[in-house]
Amino acid sequence: MKQIGVGILGFGTVGAGVADGLLKNRELMSGRLGVDITLEKIADLDLITDRGVAVDPAILTTDATAVINDPSIQIVVELIGGTGVARELVLKAFEAGKSVVTANKKLLAECGDEIFSTAERCGVDIYFGASVGGGIPIIRVLREGLAGNQISSMHGILNGTCNYILTRMENEHLPFDEVLNDAQQAGYAEAEPSLDVDGFDTVHKAAILASIAYGFHVPLASVPVEGISHLAGVDVQYAAEFGYRIKLLASINRTDDEVEVSVHPTLVPFDHVLASISDVFNAVMVNGDLSDSTLYYGRGAGREPTASTVIGDIGDVARNIVSGSCRFARAIALNNQGKLKMRDPATIESQYYVRLMVADKAGSLGTMTTILGSHGVSILGANQKLPDSDDSGGDYVPVVMLTHRASSAALVSALDEIYQTGVVREPPVKLRMI
Ligand code: HSE
User: Fold this and answer.
1) Residue nearest to atom 8 of ligand 1 (CA)
2) What does the pLDDT read at residue 415?
3) Which of 162, 284, 332, 366 has the most neighbouring CB atoms within 10 Å?
4) Binding site membership of 216 for ligand 1 (Cβ less than 6 Å)
5) What is the pLDDT of residue 386?
């Protein structure tokens, strides 16, 4: 049986999972793939920490270039992360004629053009299945299972850390700060927590999904992003009273020649399938013109689930090498470049949840509804709450409204005008609805 050698760059959580999986399931994989995949080398600057994997110490090295240049290695697995050293090493691997498997969403989202074009020029593969959805092979679904579909929309819960935090905020009535700490302890969070809670990790993943579905490079700067770090527990509770759960949602929609991609905390009705995705789990709902709605669910982070997708990619690349076909770089050719464009975020329409601290006096509600109406924002429902006993506002009461569909620009203008009148105590809170 043909042997294909693998070298891993980065022996952290996922690197250890991949090494463990490759060793444990080697025979199983060779039976399925018809290729014997051998783990030849692992590079990491830290060779002291015990990763809980019984690898031969002789295959460990601190020299990443030695892995790339090792003639017994045909597939380089990049699990360092980021766009610094990782980018340099991936490019170096391509130039050395090695195919690359990576889980690095930041690298793909920020440097995708350079990565894909270099892989293409060098005639090697770049696989990145674990960059989105951890253990959910959603990228493979888009490029294979749904390849015959026009994708009209995708909605995804793509960050396990945020979903874990939101689940606990709702179930245990805990404030954001208290739960963030627990999420970090659980080991799913990025080293820089802002990447998770401010939505950037989700934006990277959304941009990758949209680029694959629509065949053009989605510039990160064109994607509006709002994370959950400012989310008040009271909005989670009020949303629940209206029958909604708040999820950090990546929303991707195509209309004619425009694509809208956005990341926002979003109210999802309890009976919507995405509302049932809790804790660290991720899910992506994809609508195709032939398939209709399809749903993909699983663990979006963690050692074994992420390793599962990385190893699946290694298997695919190994088969490509054996069969002499380098297909993936071409399969994601940006063939709609110039034909599709990003939608102006200000024109994106949605229903909205709005919370305002309103002066408790005659005419306040009238002032607000008149202003909303003058901007074409129609109210679907409203609920005036009694002030909390610990609310020092006294003369102000919380009012929660749900609107009909309105453009982001219209709602923002209306809320600004309401704030200027002095009828509300603080800038209104607005959240999207699915
Ligand atoms: N920090 C990410 C998450 C890890 O919480 O989903 C997986 O990309």
Assistant:
1) 301
2) 98
3) 162
4) no
5) 74
Residues 54 and 193 grouped into a single domain: no
What pLDDT shows up at residue 44? 98
- Asked whether residue 377 falls in the same domain as residue 295, the answer is no
Whether 321 and 354 share a structural domain: no
Beta bridge partners of 290: none
Same domain, 234 and 197: yes
Domain that holds residue 318: 3-134+303-332
Return the pLDDT at 387: 66
Instruction: Find the 55 Cα to ligand 1 centroid distance in Å.
Output: 26
Alpha carbon of 193 to ligand 1 centroid (Å): 10
Residue environment code for 192-210, b if the CB has 16+ CB neighbours within 10 A, otherwise e: eeebbbbbbbbbbbbbbbb
The answer to whether the CB of 198 is under 6 A from ligand 1 is no
**pLDDT for position 269:** 98
Number of separate domains in the chain? 3
- Kindly report, residue by residue over 34-74, the tens digit of the pLDDT: 999 999 999 999 999 999 999 999 999 999 999 999 999 99
Please work out whether the CB of residue 104 comes within 6 Å of at least one atom of ligand 1: no
355 and 289 part of one domain: no
What are 359-404's pLDDT values in tens digits?
A: 999 999 999 999 999 999 999 999 888 766 555 556 899 999 999 9
Residue 323 vs residues 40, 96, 98, 128, 136: alpha-carbon distances, Å: 21, 20, 15, 20, 26
Do 123 and 159 belong together in one domain? no
What is the value of pTM for the model shown?
Answer: 0.92
Question: Is there a single domain that holds both residue 296 and residue 380?
Answer: no
Residue 125 in contact with residue 317, Cβ under 8 Å?
A: yes
Q: What is the CATH number of the domain that holds 411?
A: 3.30.70.260
**Ligand 1: which of 159, 166, 168, 192 to mutate, judged by most atoms within 8 Å of the beta carbon?**
159
**Residue 369 is assigned to a structural domain of this protein:** yes
Structure tokens at 181: 């700490």
106/47 same-domain check = yes
